[in-house]
Structure formats: C-alpha cells, structure tokens
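Retro notes, structure queue

What went well: the backlog is down to a handful. What didn't: a couple of records were mislabeled last round, so from now on we paste the full input next to the output in the thread. Example, using Methionyl-tRNA formyltransferase from Streptomyces lomondensis:
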Amino acid sequence: MRVAMFGYQTWGHRTLQALLDSDHEVTLVVTHPKSDHAYEKIWDDSVAELAGKHDVPVLLRNRPDDPELLDALRAARPDLIVANNWRTWLPPEVFDLPPHGTLNIHDSLLPSYAGFSPIIWALINGEERVGVTAHRMNGELDAGDILVQRAVPVGPADTATDLFHRTVDLIAPIVRESLDLIATGRDAGQWVPQDRSRASFFHKRSPEDSRIDWSWPAERLERLVRAQSDPYPNAYTFHRGQRLRIVSAAVSEGRYGGTPGRIFIREGDGVVIVAGPEAHTGRCPGLVIRRLRTDDGTEYAATDYFRSMGGYLTARP
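Corresponding output:
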C-alpha cells in the first residue's frame, strides 16, 4: 500500500519508523514545527528528520487545512493515512481522502482518555491498565471504530515515564498488525464500534494542572507526583513564597489530623504533609515528601530541607 503519515514527537517518530520498516511505501509525511510548549519538548524525536533521512517528502504544518497540503496529499495518492500524535483536528477532506481512510494510533484504551496526555491523567486517576489503540478516524475526537488495542498493567510504583516507555513500545507492533489486516482485507468484520457511554475526553496539561491541592487525598497526590515524574514538569507547591517541585513522595503509614498543607512530622525517610478533604478527622494518611527540588534546580532530601516542623505548604506563593 501507499501510505501517508501525520504525526509528531516520539509517538509519530515510532509510527513513521514502523512504516519505513514495513513492506509499504511511505509517500508523504506531515508533521508540526517544533514547539516551545513544555510538554512538546519532551519525547521530541523529530519526525521531519527521520523522513528526510529516507528521502520522504515532508510538510511542516500547524494545521492541516490549507490548499497546498491537500494538493500534496492528493498527489501522493495514499491508499491509507496513518496518524499518531497529530495535535489538531483533521477535516473529512483529509481523513476520508484515501480508499482505506485514516488509521489513528492513540495512546489510551479508547473510548476512555481521548484527547491529550492520557497516560498522565490515567495514572493520576489510579487506572490499573493503560495502552494503545488503533482506530479509524472520523469526525469526532478519537471516536472511530477500533481495529487493534493492546494494554499494559500499571504497577504501584510506576511513573508516567515508565508507562511512556512501555506504551511507546506497543506502537510498532500495533502499526504492523493493523496494516497487515488492512492490506490483506482481513480487517473486514474486525472493526469494533466504541461504546460512547464510556468515553472520556481530556485537555492538554499546563502548569496549573501540576499545582498541588492539599485537599486531595494523599493517595491521589502520590499518584500526581508519579504522573509528573522527570522529565515532565513536576508537581509543585509553595513554601514561604518559594516554589517547591516534589520529586518523590509516598502515602504515610500513620494517620494524621489537622489542616491540609501542614508540615507536620518526620516519618521514615521523609516529612509528612497533612492532606485530604477529611483531614480534620484524623483518620486520613498524609503525603510523605521524600525529595524536592527548588526553582534553581537544587534537589534536597525533605528531611534536610524542612529542618523544623510547622508552617504550611500552599497552592499559591
């Protein structure tokens, strides 16, 4: 088959590499220009550079709806478009252009976690599994029929970085399997409609989404810290007007009462911060901060940074 590809960052890079390693011909690649957005500078393997190394024509676009792109796409005569991590909506004149339409590769177990940063949101929410879905693109966001879906378990200590590596490794086999099914016609009857009653949609993450709310239960805060592991922008809070980025944390063994955000007591190798909507009852665990980082990049053990107990961590300076 002749295949055109829309994609960006490492997800798109892995997808393009799988296409280049296949028996199919890649006739055009469309990718975004580099961005200064914090989350788009992470896992930023260049789709454009990979295409260039293989002499595949490349177009750089923020949006896909200009006439020049449509002309180039028609000239490329794809039998199929494959998309992964294309950051804007593709119109019907694009996704319906090839005979086989457009296969979108999305890093969640659709219909849940459509949209952006699905692994981070899934980890924050305590999901037991994450994964990757190959589905047919239609006019709704990540809503088309599913062809192939694979999952990996989420362990109790997994970070978003761990889950990124585990799920990105699923891309190549899913692309190979999907294209083989489509090319041989064995995809007929294999497409499964999504249960739209189970659908959920998530927005791009921004600095506000990493701000710690000490009224959250400690269990969720601990997952937030793991979800914002390096190289992602860390979960953060403020102490005496200075931002502290939380590098490592755990749920306390003891239960602690009081006001959320109170710097309370040492436990093990960390310092307990009172947390939770029911913290006043004294029946909730706190969050044990183990390691933190200041805005100048200096990292501390929490027991070294908080030399005395008392005072509060706050959401604002």
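Agreed that this is the format going forward. Reviewer comment attached to the example: The mean pLDDT is 96.
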